[in-house]
Protein 1
Amino acid sequence: MTAEPAGVARSAADRATIRGRRQWPLPRQADPDAPLLVVEGLTTHFRLGGATVHAVDDVSFTLEDGEALGIAGESGCGKTTTALSLVRLLPSNAEVVGGSVRLFGIDLRTKSDNALRRYRWREISIIFQGAMNALNPVRRVGDQVAEPLIERLGLSKAAAMTRAGELLDMVGIPKGRARAYPHELSGGMRQRAMIAMALACDPAVVIGDEPTTALDVMVQAQILELLETLRERLGLSLILITHDLSVIAETCDRVMVMYAGRVAEEGPVGTVFATPRHPYTQMLLRAFPDVHAGRRDLGTIPGTPPDLRKPPPGCRFHPRCPVAMDVCRTVTPPEVTFCDRVRVACHLYPPGSDGAPRPLPPARAGAGAALPRASAAPPEEGAS
Ligand SMILES: Nc1ncnc2c1ncn2[C@@H]1O[C@H](COP(=O)(O)OP(=O)(O)OP(=O)(O)O)[C@@H](O)[C@H]1O
Ligand code: SF4
Ligand SMILES: [Mg+2]
């Protein structure tokens, strides 16, 4: 086992090339040599009645220049809250209570709400799911794309409209359609308009939160292709949140699988999908159809994700894990990074172990029956 920072190490030359394409200089406090985005120990709670929802708990990841990170996991596991916490675009009952978010080395966590506004849209922008709801129905799409250019970059109305036309053109919407209202555009066109808005200020990081979920498969493919092309052309750094593992497989460099507000496994897409280590990742992949595999029954993940007002102690997956051990019920598994840059939080892979994937028994995987208990030396709480 080797402890290495997760992520694709881009060369200084790559980084300089991508940063050189920016239309605007880096923020003044930026460290030009710092990684693009480093998130450490991010913890976000919601207040709900008298209870606390532990939505995001000690989540860490990095994003390098030009890299695409996919975030996967069942509904309610904290994908959206993680993304929104980066720039604190959260509902009023939410609070980021711990961790750090460093963009170009600048800690956004310590910024006041007012100071953070400079980073929203301009450095980190979000393509929301369901463009019809995210776009203002009574404003022309061209005006909406122009708005961040006027508000955030101080462009004149005329200059912003010209740039909005160029942006719409870049995402495949003819300039003339800038005068259309959202309801006059197809679902795919509206999502393209959202992408144009997200790109308007030439942000360092674009977050796509289920950007294709509401679209039919043909349009989904077109939108993903568009994101790919833009990534290549603009050197975009992308965080892509999706339930669709095949989208991550095709689009992303790395994948982070979340379960109940925590990171279960994270690493290069090819490695994690070919040899998943965490039982949850294995079950998630088995529950997903693979067009390249032969005919097989899809697995299911028995049970339901926990109520995050009262998450289970120890490993949050233990009530559903077919190979749970006694230690799993009481001790939080430490995150351990192996030499193939895969990070796993599971007692099957304790610090110092060789990290060799331990597949679930095929006949029982996903069936939900209690499997024979595996044995592993319980690691120390908090060790890594
Ligand atoms: N406004 C809110 N108030 C209270 N709890 C919330 C609120 N929004 C989300 N949560 C809770 O926070 C947890 C994480 O939610 P989040 O929306 O981040 O999950 P998600 O992974 O994005 O789910 P989905 O795939 O359904 O979009 C869930 O338990 C959810 O119920
Ligand atoms: S083996 Fe234990 S630590 Fe690993 S996923 Fe199952 S319950 Fe969690
Ligand atoms: Mg979500």
Protein 2
Amino acid sequence: MTGATLARPPVRHQEDTLMLDQSPTFGDLRLPARFWAKVRVLPNGCWEWMGACRGGYGRFHVGNRNALAHRVAYEALVGPMPDGLQPDHLCRNRPCVNTAHLEPVTNAVNCRRGSRAKLTEIDVRMIRELRGIISQRKLAQAYGVVYGNIGFIQRGESWIFPTPGG
Ligand SMILES: [Zn+2]
């Protein structure tokens, strides 16, 4: 028996492969100037949509279509949204169009996040202190949030606490 037969590829979960590590550039020319004119950068890195919103999400006209602004940003800067997935905000800031804060998830995951645990500041501090000690997946289970949220909290400068109903 050779070592090769023992070597199994690590199990890759879909969430791992879809995590976004690349940093998009504000003002990227793949989006029109009229898009960027409606965006302001917040201290935590969110690109907040200042234009029209519906249900808390920014809207942007593309041709005859009144599209979701964060989705437009994702498709321009990252690529087509994979079939059956929708961009979810890791920063929990609905008007944000920063593609580094978006993660494609299934509708089921998005719904689960909708009823997400309300993390307190103490939770967030604890999650950061446990970085590298407890796996992101275990932390996600323990706190009732989705895997991607843990990485965002641990990497992110700040975390926007969900407002009631938001
Ligand atoms: Zn954001």
